[in-house]
Structure formats: structure tokens, C-alpha cells
Design goal:
The complex is a heterotetramer of chains A (208), B (246), C (587) and D (266). Chain A is built from 6 helices and no strands. Chain B is mainly beta. Chain B has a single domain, classed as Immunoglobulin-like (Sandwich), CATH 2.60.40. Chain B is flat, with a radius of gyration of 22 Å. By secondary structure, chain C is mainly α. Chain C has one domain: Cytochrome C Oxidase, Chain A (Up-down Bundle). Chain C is built from 17 helices and 4 strands. In chain C, a hairpin with a 2-residue loop joins strand 1 and strand 2. Chain C is globular and about 80 Å long. At the B-D interface, loops of B face strand 10 of D.
Chain lengths: 208, 246, 587, 266
């Protein structure tokens, strides 16, 4: 619903000027959030880079299977961006069934990503990696940075899956409209984009 | 109603008095207490104790009146008497072991701890005094999980005394002052009678109930030694220890 | 959260005390809540500074109330060194975050900005409410540190690692107290980010018809720029705090290097870098001082035209671009806090140049204010006096910056009381003066009553002179090498400075006492002050185009149209922004 | 009225401040280092530049407030509008800050970019809560390696030396006070055993933080004998205010005697 319709819905005959940039306020808010969140991720990755440069004998625990797992995760997350795109398209076309279908697909892919990621985590943990421990006896910085950076990303993914669930339900019940789907889509693409930084930095650079 | 209350109150008061009397009766049969005395000696040359440079805080030298200070890890008196050895009963005490009622004093004087080693009972009060013009922080560091709480607290020069108690037995809690890093001391928390050897190596355990005990001597550098003693009513027993210099 | 529901809520004020005054989504109530929280915090912070100043100048003076509050920290009312440092840490934290960041930005911004853009509320009212309540929880966490056995942390508001990261081995207060502190700051970050987001979207999206960016009131401009700086800076402090919390609670070593020995015991950490903490902290920390001062710029630039009865020199553009330049440059100067920290000396020079160049936009802003007075008809109401006081303090504070921006001179003055004097002038008292200006200015709008002018002026004179007495003296003792963050002066070197210490303490006590005049005035006028008209100052912006206090939806459902910029003044004449009359000042 | 009072107060405050700075009511102590005069000169230079801005700014503010208080006729803008102000700020202040950057960076470079003299006397400095300790390499000219796990302040092993196993550590001399020969280049290596500390000697015009995990070099030459305070300026905990040591600048022969005496005390 645009600003103009909103004002009418509020019972006012006066018409408020539409947003100067033609962006609905939730979407604008999401963009601003993304700017801020990018800074947060940036600071985490800066800390990682700082640690990485300053540490001799950095632990590189990832073998072929982990990298393969990471590639699959990347593929899954990228596909979820595509399904998200389809959901937004469907919302724009006002195709409720399709929105439901594509949002469901996105959530499923997000959940698969999270599951694969957690599998990787548990592998590392069973190998003895912790936030503060390196099973090979070297510096513990890999564990600290890997778990915190990917943990932050994983939190974003899981939050996203839950949020998509709310959006899907709201859309089905008619409380939410296309703008909500688009806003959620913005967030989802951002989470994907972040992964495009996290994957090479945290996985590829730590392959032995 | 009124009478009931009065009777109730009287009964209650009587009960309190009886309970108090019971409580104050010592668990051990009141007999004449024994005493253990002895001397701790060091066999061999005493290691060199480094002099301490206190120039960091000029007020230390002032309070010392220019008296030089040196490390106190091994303090040997005349005739090879070893000071700062805690002698206590490590086995044989049973039942309700009384807690010494007199507080021990632990002073900071001339930027050193006096005494360098102090022994207390769990629950016994310890009075910490700062006789210096400068601020000290008292920083005991008991083993984690041992029941005693670490703390780190400053005490201004001439400031009010601190009152501390320890809850669990612990042989040698190190104490430090971070403002004057050379300052260190040990607090030994043991149950029952105990004594710390003085400058000539002599010590005394008072109020030891008759019985057979394992007597243990602990020194911060040389570790522990034990021996059996039998204490009879009202008779002083002698027990000597000799530590071998490393 | 359907849009329609929120929208409907704007126009039907919630019923019941709790929904109306406590968990209110009304930006005006939230603004007042922020201002109240700041005022309480400010008096707490001031009391802490009193205690510290008394202790410094009269070390044997007993402060019984401290002995009662913390028998451990101040036995018999005599402060221990660790308690002094705890009070200092909390003074810095409370003042920097809960007063200086909260009052001029979140407080006035919340109350005024939506009205100034002609909106019924902020873009996201519920988010706005959460901002305040998250801030409040953060405040409670910080305040709670006073009541835990170990006391508040003592690592300063900058919480440098590893002192703040290793836990209680580093000293009293570094256990639970420091953990609560980190959580409190993380809360504050989250709240500030939500607030900044709301401010930006409201300014961009909620403006009424005809209110182009070039017609925005200068205060709105400043809040808008400030929101951007907040958004980027707090987004970095948050991870900085999270990593610090991980070091403290998760056993990581982001900020803790290997080989540390506390109490003769080797610590289990390895591989971290204390400099990483400093980089992350100051990447936030320097913009933070501009987060504090930019709203002050805005408030003063907004008040000036009303009381000089003409537009500022250069119109909205010069001052606004100066603010944008300051905000942008603030992100590339953080290294000047680290000149003597072991950072590469080459980097010191790299950071020195932008630090010196940030002077240029600041000087432009000052020149705009000063030269706007030329040929004016200045009215000296209390808000204007405070604005003029702000300009004077800001000039004085800015001058100290020259010394601290150059690594060579900073290497002598760093960590002396010169720095303390400098930042109290620039970001502390300047921002406080602007806040007072805003308070006296908007009070009639907020409460519908006018504050007592005589008491206001008395408050101003005492404050103005008091500030100079205290903080110029700090500069001077700094030249003499008096070191900051000392809980007592035992050096041979510092003892000759004791007369200066006593002078500052007495001045600070008087300065603080003057604030009670303000407190009395603010509370008394709320109930007994003369009723105010809708536009008592003859101002032109939208907040004066509605009743005092404004109705629930700000304009009673009216949709305003804006025809002019905010500075339509010409002597007695002025044209409201909403008036279709011809422009008289060409804005 | 209020405007006139304001103007008078501002002028008074400005004059008193300027007086205090110019007459050095509280001032920097005597300078005893070779590089110090460069820093002092830079401070004087900055006082001149910034002081002029300060006085000019306050006086102009005061005079405008004095002159334009109340109704003085139809308001007018300054001739030329904001352009001259912006140009002034860019050109004059810009030149000023550029000049300060250049001259200041020379002073900075002279202190920090100059390589330490190879013949410098090397001294290790260890800071910890809340004291400094200093280490001289002894006759062999070599510092023994450090073993943090061996640090035991009660035994006065402040650095964590292991003289029983490290031959280089055998003759290391650890002192609580730093003695240096006058007119000889000194190279300190700063390391901290616990938290951040700082090494500040006002008379030397040296202030440098200790950063745990880093070894930071500092070099200087003292040109005047005497005993000076070293104080900590980086908040390090409850004993921060009491964390200090003394620097003794001695003649070469006094220094040799002093070091011998310290060696005997090990």
C-alpha cells in the first residue's frame, strides 16, 4: 500500500506527498538497516583480517570435503536468492499461491543452508575446535573468528527464515502486501551478499 | 489470651537460655589442655635474599627509617632457626574443633607484610592494618573452588582496618600488593591449634587437647614435614623439625 | 505490524496510563522520556564528578553518603582509589552515552523532528518506543554496577583492553561490573541504531508537502546528518562490544595477547591485539564526539535566526555543508587518539592531517554563527544566551584541538588534564549548553508553559563563568604535566598544583550548585509557569505552527504545506514556513 | 544589557586565559632531552597560531554581541555574504593547518623517524600493575630470553628470567630505578606484562604507551643530570596514580658506579 492510500485509509481526505524517492518507508528502512549491518559485518571481518595478518601459523582446518560442503552451501544460498526473486515477482503480480510457493522454497533452502552450516560447525567442534581452542596446538584465533563471523551470519539466516515465515503467513492472511515481501527480499539478498564475502574469507582462505 | 502469651514468652525465653548454655558448652570434655613447643632449623646454608629496592615509592623508605629491606622467602635466625614455618595438627583432631577467638593481626609496615606468614583458623577474624603513609592493595589469591574467596582491595595509608575471615582450610593463600609488587605474604588457614616459628625458629601450639596427632610443618620454600606427637594432659611436648637447604 | 493499524494508532491516542505515558509510541512522550532519563543521568553524573573533585582537592574530606552507598568502596566516606576510578568510569559512561548522546539527539530529536517535518509521528513508532526502552535497560544495567559487591568497572569509558577483557584478575570491578558495562553499552548501541534508522527514514520519507531538503529546519538537518554518523559509528561499536564480551565470557582472545601475567600467573589467552580494540573503539569513538556535537550545531543554528531576527550568513547551505563535512571527516581521524599508543608513527602523520583539516568546516560553522550577529537585532532571551555561550565554549574547546591533533605536541599533552579540559569544552559543556538552549527554547512547546526568565539567566551566568573557571584551569595544569585519571596526587610533581586543584573543585561545586536552579526552574515552571502562547519566540518552523503542547497527532489531522525555508526573519517581521505569503528573506 | 555583560565576561575570560598561558602560570618543566626543544617549539608555535584564533574569535564574538544587542535598526548581512568567510576558512585556516602539519611532522619525524644511534645504551623496560622494572644486559651485552611463566614478583623475578638455564640471563641487571649516562643515546624497549601502561617523563618530553604483546622502541638522549619522575599515563587499574619510577641521569662515571652497585645487589 502506498503512502497515498494509507492516508485515505486513515480517514483523511488530504493527500500526503509521496515519498520523495518513491521508496516506501519500510523498504527505505531496510536499506538503511543494511548499510548499518554491513558496517557491523565489516567490523567483524576487519577484526578477522587483523587477527589473520597478525597471527603466525594460522590454523587451516578445511579439507576437500569442507570446501565442497561450503560450495554446496553457497549454491543453496544463491538458489534461495533466485527463489526469493521469484517470490517478489509473484507478489508484484499479486499471485498469492506463487508467493506462498516461492517463499516456502526460499525458507527451505535457507534451512538447508543452516543445517549444512551447523554440520560444519559440529564437525569442527568434534575435531576439538572451540572459540578458544585449537586442537592442533597452534593459536586459537581461527576458532574465535570462524565461529563468531559465521555465527553472526548464521543468526542472520535463521532470523531471515523465521521472518520469511511471518511474512508468508501475513501475506496469506492478507495483512501483508507486496511491499513486505519486497522488504524481506532485500534482507535476504543482503544476507546472501554477505555470504559472498564470508565464504572466500572464512572457507577458501582456510583450506589446507 | 494475655496469660497464654506470657507463658509462651517465658517458655521461649527459657528455651533460649538452655540452648545458649548447651551451645556454649565445649564439645570436648573440659580438661587441662596440652602444649606443643619446638624449634625449626635449617640444615645447610641459607640462600641469598635479594635486597629490595623500594625507590618506586619514597614513602616506604621514610617509614622504614632507612632500614634496608630484603626478600623473606627464607629467613634464618641465629643458630640456624628457620622463621615463618607454620606448625599445625594435620591429623588426629576430632569433633568440634574450637575456633580461636582472638583475631590475628596482619600489618603492612614499611612496605612489607608483618608477619610474612600468618596462620588462622577458618572463621577466625583477621585484622588487616596499614601503618604506612602510602596506599596498599591487599590481594589474596586462594585456589579457585577451594571455598575461599579472592579479593582485591585497597587500603589507604593509615586508613581504617579491614576485618577478614576465611571459610575453608587452605595451606598457603598467597597475598600480594600490586602497588608494591615485591610485597608478598602467605595466609595459612588450618583448623585447630597452630603456631608460626619466630626469628629463632621456635614455635608453640597452645590449647592442644590430649591425644595423638600428626604434626605438620609447612614452609613456603621447603614444603612440608610431619611427625607424630602424643599430647598428655597439662604436659608440654617438644617436637623439632629440620628442613634441608636445597 | 500492519501499516494500517499503526497508522490508525496515530490518530487515536491510546488509553490508559501505561500505554499513554510509559510504553507510549508517541514520539513526543518518547522525547520527554529520553530528556527525563538524560536529566536524571546528568545529575547522577554531576554528583559523581563532585565526589571526584572533592576527593582530588581534599583527600581527607569524608563524604558520608558515599560511605553509605558503598561501605567497601568508600569506608567511612573516604574514597579508595578503585572507587574513584569506578566513579570516573561511570561519570564518563553516563555523561557520554546517557546524557550527551541521548539528550540533544534522541531527546529533542524525537520530540521536535517529526513536528518539524510536518509528520504525525516517526516513521516507525513502535521501533521508536523500543529504542527508548532498550536504552533504559542499558541505563539500568549501568546503574546496577553500583549495587553489586564488586562495584562498577574501573577501566574508564574507553574500556581499553586487556584491562577490560581479562576479568577480575585485573582488579576490582573488572568482573561482573565490567560485564554489565559491556552489556549496557551493547544495549545502547542497538537502541541508537534503531533510533538513527528511524530518524533517517522519517526525515526522508515523512516530510510534508513542499518541505524539500533545502527547506528543512537546520535542527532537522543536523539530526539527519547525525543519524547517519550514528548509524555507521554505533554499527562498529556494537561488534567491538560483542567481541569484548566474547573475550570476557567465551574465552576468546581478540584483544588479549599471549604471555600476560597477572598475580604471577600466566593467563591462558594468546594471539589477540589490544590495538585492534583501540582501532575499533576509536573508529566509533571519534565520530561519537561529533554525534554529540552535531545536534548542538543544529539546535544553535536553529535558535540563532529566531533571536537575531535574520537568516544565518550563507543560508542553510553553508552551515549544512560544514556539518556534512564534519560528519564525513570524523570517520578518518580516529587515529589521533592513538598517537602514543604504539601505532606506526607514519600512521600518526596520516591521521594528523585530516584531524587538522576538520578544523576548516568547524571554523566555517563558527564564522557563520559569529558573523550572523553582524548587523542583527539580538534578543537576549535565555535560549539565545545559551547559544552564544555555546559558540564561545566551542571556540575555546576547538583551540585545544590544535595541540592534540599534532603528534609532536600531543606526545607531551596526551593523557594530561589538558585533554580533559579540551573535551569537556568541545563535546561536554558545548553540547550541554546547546541542550540547555534547546531546553529553554522548546520548553514552552513541550509543556505549554514558559520557564522563569530571571532564574534562567542566573543559571546561565553561573554556568558560563563556572565552566571557564574549571576547564581552563584543567588546560593550564595539563601544560604543567598533571596526569588525568589519577585518584590522588602523590607525585612530587603534582603537589605544587594543589592550589589549582582546590580552585577547580570549588568552582565545580558552584557550577554544579547552579544546576539546581535549573532543576527547580524546570519543575516549578511545569506547574506554575505562565501559560505559553503557540509561538512565544516568533519563530517560523512547523513546531510553532501547532498548539503548545501539540495534540496527539501534532497538527490535529491537518496536512501542512510548506512554502519557505526556515529562516524567514526580518527584524520584527517573520513568515511562517506554512504561510503562502511572499518571502521576506529569500529563503 | 545582557549582551553587554556577555561581551565583557567573554573578553575578561579571554584576557585571563591568554595572560595565564603567556606568563606561564603553570608550565612545562625544564627540558632535558635533545629532541625536546623541537616539541617545545612546536607547542609555542601552536600557541601563537591557535592563540590568535582564540583571541580573535572571542573578541569578534564579544564585540558583535556588544554592538548588535537589542533593536539597532533594520538587520543587514555582512557585505559579501558567506563567501569571504568560507574563503577565509579555507585559505587562512587551511594554510595554518597545512603549515602546522608540515612543521609539526618535522618535529614528529625528528623524534620518531630517526633511527636510534647504533651505539645507544639498550635498556629493557617492563611495566606491570603497578611498577616499572628495568633491565641492563650486563657485561656480555646480551639480554636473556624472557619466560613469562617464571615471573614471580615475590622472589623479585620481575622479568621472568631463568639465569640457571640461560647463560645470557646470568649477568642481566634488573633495577627498580633507571639510571642513564648523560649525553648518551638511550634505546628503551617497552613491554608490558599485563595491561596497557605508559612511560611519561615530562622533562624528557617522552610519552609512549606500553602495549601488551608488543615491544615498543623509544630512544632519546638526556643532556642534564638529575632525578626525574617517570609516571604512568595509561589507566591500568587501582594503583594507576601510584605507578611510577625514577629516572636518574648521571655522569658516565657515576653511572658506572651505580650500575656496579646494582649488579652487586642481584
Amino acid at each position: 500500500m502506498s503512502q497515498i492510500e494509507l492516508m485515505v485509509a486513515g480517514g483523511h481526505e488530504v493527500i500526503m506527498e509521496a515519498s520523495p524517492y518513491g521508496i516506501e518507508k519500510k523498504k527505505l528502512g531496510m536499506w538503511i538497516f543494511i548499510v548499518s549491518d554491513a558496517c557491523t559485518f565489516g567490523a567483524f571481518l576487519f577484526a578477522y583480517g587483523y587477527m589473520r595478518i597478525g597471527t603466525v601459523a594460522w590454523g587451516t582446518p578445511f579439507g576437500f570435503s569442507s570446501i565442497l560442503n561450503g560450495m554446496i552451501m553457497t549454491a543453496v544460498l544463491l538458489s534461495s536468492s533466485l527463489t526469493m526473486l521469484a517470490a517478489v515477482r509473484a507478489a508484484q503480480a499479486d499471485d498469492g499461491a506463487a508467493v506462498k510457493k516461492w517463499l516456502g522454497a526460499t525458507m527451505l533452502l535457507g534451512a538447508i543452508f543452516a543445517a549444512l552450516h551447523l554440520r560444519e560447525w559440529f564437525n569442527l567442534i568434534s575435531e576439538g575446535w572451540r572459540l578458544f581452542a585449537n586442537p592442533t596446538g597452534g593459536p586459537a584465533q581461527f576458532g574465535a573468528t570462524f565461529f563468531s563471523v559465521t555465527g553472526l551470519h548464521l543468526t542472520h539466516v535463521i532470523t531471515g527464515v523465521i521472518a520469511l515465515g511471518f511474512v508468508a503467513r501475513g501475506y496469506k492472511q492478507g495483512r501483508y502486501d507486496q511491499s513486505h515481501v519486497e522488504t524481506a527480499g532485500l534482507y535476504w539478498h543482503f544476507v546472501d551478499l554477505v555470504w559472498m564475502f564470508v565464504f572466500p574469507l572464512m572457507y577458501l582462505m582456510n583450506a589446507h | 489470651m494475655k496469660t497464654h502469651q506470657r507463658i509462651g514468652a517465658t517458655v521461649f525465653a527459657l528455651l533460649l537460655i538452655v540452648a545458649g548454655l548447651l551451645r556454649s558448652t565445649p564439645g570436648v570434655r573440659a580438661t587441662a589442655m596440652g602444649q606443643v613447643t619446638g624449634t625449626v632449623k635449617l640444615d645447610g646454608p641459607a640462600p641469598h635474599q635479594k635486597p629490595i629496592d623500594m625507590s618506586k615509592d619514597p614513602s616506604c623508605a621514610q617509614t622504614r627509617g632507612g632500614a634496608p629491606a630484603s626478600g623473606e622467602n627464607v629467613v634464618v635466625g641465629t643458630d640456624g632457626g628457620l622463621a615463618n614455618v607454620v606448625v599445625y595438627i594435620s591429623q588426629g583432631l576430632n569433633g568440634d574443633i574450637p575456633v580461636a577467638s582472638k583475631p590475628v593481626t596482619f600489618e603492612q609496615k614499611g612496605c612489607q607484610y608483618v608477619p610474612h606468614v600468618v596462620a588462622v583458623n577458618p572463621g577466625q577474624h583477621m585484622t588487616i592494618l596499614n601503618d604506612d603513609k602510602t596506599m596498599h592493595n591487599i590481594h589474596p589469591d586462594p585456589k579457585p573452588g577451594g571455598g575461599n574467596n579472592a579479593f582485591n582491595k585497597s587500603q589507604l595509608g593509615g586508613g581504617p582496618s579491614l576485618d577478614v575471615t576465611w571459610t575453608a582450610e587452605e595451606i598457603a593463600i598467597p597475598v600480594k600488593c600490586n602497588v608494591h609488587p615485591w610485597m608478598h605474604a602467605f595466609i595459612v588457614v588450618v583448623k585447630g591449634p597452630n603456631g608460626v616459628s619466630g626469628g629463632n625458629g621456635s614455635f608453640k601450639l597452645e590449647n592442644v587437647p590430649p591425644g595423638t596427632y600428626t604434626l605438620t610443618a609447612w614452609h613456603e620454600t621447603y614444603g612440608t614435614q610431619s611427625q607424630k606427637v602424643t599430647v598428655a594432659e597439662g604436659k608440654p611436648v617438644t617436637a623439632d623439625f629440620t628442613f634441608k637447604a636445597k | 505490524m500492519a501499516e494500517t493499524q499503526v497508522h490508525a494508532a496515530h490518530h487515536a491516542p491510546s488509553q490508559g496510563f501505561i500505554r499513554k505515558y510509559v510504553f507510549s509510541v508517541d514520539h513526543k512522550i518518547i522525547g520527554i522520556q529520553y530528556l527525563t532519563l538524560s536529566m536524571v543521568s546528568a545529575f547522577i553524573g554531576m554528583a559523581l564528578s563532585w565526589a571526584m573533585r572533592i576527593h582530588l582537592a581534599y583527600p581527607d574530606f569524608r563524604i558520608p553518603i558515599l560511605g553509605w552507598l558503598s561501605p567497601n568502596g568508600a569506608p567511612n566516606g573516604l574514597m579508595t582509589p578503585e572507587y574513584y576510578l569506578s566513579l570516573m568510569t561511570m561519570h564518563g559512561t553516563i555523561m557520554a552515552f546517557f546524557v550527551l548522546t541521548a539528550a540533544p539527539f534522541a531527546g529533542f530529536g524525537n520530540f521536535v523532528l517529526p513536528i518539524q517535518v510536518g509528520a504525525a509521528d516517526m516513521a516507525f513508532p513502535r521501533l521508536n518506543m523500543s529504542s527508548f526502552w532498550v536504552t533504559f535497560v542499558g541505563f539500568l544495567l549501568a546503574a546496577a554496577t553500583f549495587f553489586i559487591p564488586d562495584g562498577p568497572p574501573l577501566s574508564g569509558w574507553t574500556a581499553y583492553a586487556p584491562l577490560s577483557a581479562v576479568g577480575s584478575v585485573a582488579g576490582p570491578g573488572q568482573g561482573l561490573g565490567q560485564t554489565l558495562w559491556v552489556l549496557s553499552i551493547a544495549m545502547f548501541c542497538v537502541a541508537s541504531l534503531m533510533g538513527a534508522l528511524n530518524f533517517i527514514v522519517t526525515t526522508l520519507d515523512m516530510r510534508t508537502k513542499g518541505l524539500t531538503l533545502s527547506r528543512l529546519p537546520l535542527s532537522t538537518w543536523a539530526w539527519f546528518i547525525d543519524a547517519w554518523v550514528s548509524l555507521l559509528a554505533f554499527a562498529v561499536l556494537l561488534p567491538c562490544g560483542l567481541l569484548l564480551a566474547l573475550d570476557r565470557l567465551g574465552g576468546t582472545s581478540f584483544f588479549i595477547p599471549g604471555g600476560l601475567v597477572f598475580n604471577d600467573q600466566l593467563q591462558p589467552h594468546s594471539g589477540g591485539s589490544p590495538l585492534l580494540f583501540q582501532h575499533l573503539f576509536w573508529f566509533f569513538g571519534h565520530p561519537e564526539v561529533y554525534i554529540i556535537i552535531l545536534p548542538a550545531f543544529g539546535i544553535v543554528s536553529h535558535i540563532f535566526p529566531t533571536f537575531i531576527r535574520k537568516p544565518l550568513v550563507g543560508g542553510w547551505k553553508v552551515i549544512t555543508f560544514a556539518e556534512i563535512a564534519v560528519g564525513t571527516l570524523s570517520f578518518v581521524v580516529w587515529g589521533h587518539h592513538m598517537f602514543v599508543s604504539g601505532m606506526s608513527p607514519f600512521m600518526a602523520m596520516v591521521f594528523s592531517v585530516p584531524t587538522l583539516f576538520i578544523t576548516i568546516p568547524s571554523v566555517i560553522a563558527v564564522l557563520v554563527w559569529v558573523f550572523s550577529l553582524y548587523g542583527a537585532n539580538i534578543r537576549f532571551d535565555t535560549p539565545m544566551l545559551y547559544s552564544l555561550g555555546f559558540v564561545s565554549l566551542f571556540i575555546t574547546g576547538g583551540i585545544g584541538g590544535f595541540f592534540l591533533a599534532q603528534p609532536s605536541t600531543d606526545s607531551y599533552l596526551h593523557a594530561t588534564s589538558f585533554v580533559v579540559g579540551h573535551f569537556h569544552f568541545t563535546m561536554g559543556l558545548s553540547a550541554i549548553f546547546a541542550t540547555f538552549a534547546g531546553f529553554y527554547y522548546w520548553y514552552p512547546k513541550i509543556f505549554g508553559r514558559t520557564m522563569n526568565e530571571k532564574l534562567g539567566k542566573l543559571h546561565f551566568w553561573l554556568s558560563f563563568v563556572g565552566v571557564y573557571c574549571v576547564f581552563i584551569t584543567l588546560h593550564l595544569t595539563g601544560f604543567a604535566g598533571s596526569v588525568r585519571r589519577y585518584s590522588a596526587f602523590v607525585d612530587d610533581f603534582m603537589i605544587p598544583l594543589m592550589p589549582a586543584q582546590r580552585f577547580m573543585t570549588i568552582s565545580a561545586l558552584l557550577l554544579g550548585a547552579a544546576q539546581f536552579i535549573f532543576l527547580f526552574n524546570a519543575i516549578w515552571s511545569r506547574f506554575k509557569g505562565p501559560k505559553s502562547s503557540d509561538n512565544p519566540w516568533g519563530a517560523t518552523t512547523l513546531e510553532w505552527a501547532t498548539t503548545s503542547p501539540p495534540p496527539f497527532d501534532n497538527f490535529g489531522g491537518r496536512q501542512l504545506t510548506v512554502y519557505h525555508g526556515p529562516m524567514e526573519y526580518d527584524d520584527e517581521a517573520s513568515v511562517m514556513q506554512t504561510s503562502p505569503e511572499a518571502s521576506i528573506a529569500g529563503t | 544589557m545582557a549582551g553587554k555583560v556577555f561581551a565583557v565576561v567573554v573578553v575578561l575570560v579571554t584576557l585571563v586565559t591568554a595572560y595565564c598561558v603567556v606568563t606561564h602560570v603553570w608550565w612545562m618543566p625544564v627540558d632535558i632531552s635533545v629532541h625536546g626543544p623541537k616539541i617545545d617549539h612546536q607547542i609555542e608555535e601552536t600557541i601563537l597560531v591557535a592563540g590568535l584564533l582564540f583571541i580573535a574569535g572571542q573578541i569578534v564574538l564579544a564585540s558583535f554581541v556588544f554592538r548588535y544587542g537589542g533593536a539597532t535598526g533594520k538587520p543587514k548581512q555582512i557585505p559579501g555574504g558567506a563567501k569571504p568567510l568560507v574563503i577565509f576558512a579555507f585559505v587562512l585556516v587551511g594554510t595554518e593547518v597545512l603549515a602546522l602539519s608540515f612543521i609539526g611532522s618535522k618535529a614528529w619525524g625528528a623524534v620518531y623517524f630517526e633511527a636510534p644511534d647504533p651505539s645507544s645504551l639498550r635498556i629493557d623496560v617492563q611495566a606491570g600493575q603497578f611498577a616499572y622494572y628495568f633491565r641492563y644486559s650486563g657485561p656480555d651485552g646480551k639480554f636473556g630470553p624472557l619466560h613469562p611463566e617464571l615471573i614471580n614478583e615475590g622472589n623479585q623475578n620481575y622479568f621472568g628470567l631463568d639465569p640457571d638455564h640461560d647463560p645470557d640471563a646470568k649477568d642481566d641487571i634488573v633495577t627498580a630505578e633507571i639510571g642513564i649516562p648523560v649525553n648518551k643515546p638511550i634505546l628503551l624497549t617497552l613491554h608490558s606484562k599485563d595491561v596497557g601502561h605508559s612511560f611519561y617523563v615530562r622533562e624528557l618530553r617522552v610519552q609512549q604507551d606500553f602495549v601488551p604483546g608488543l615491544s615498543i622502541p623509544v630512544h632519546f638522549t638526556a643532556i642534564q643530570t638529575g632525578r626525574y619522575e617517570i609516571v604512568c599515563t595509561q589507566l591500568c587499574g587501582l594503583g594507576h596514580y601510584n605507578m611510577k619510577a625514577y629516572l636518574s641521569v648521571l655522569s658516565q662515571s657515576d653511572f658506572d658506579d651505580w650500575l656496579k652497585k646494582q649488579a652487586a645487589m642481584q
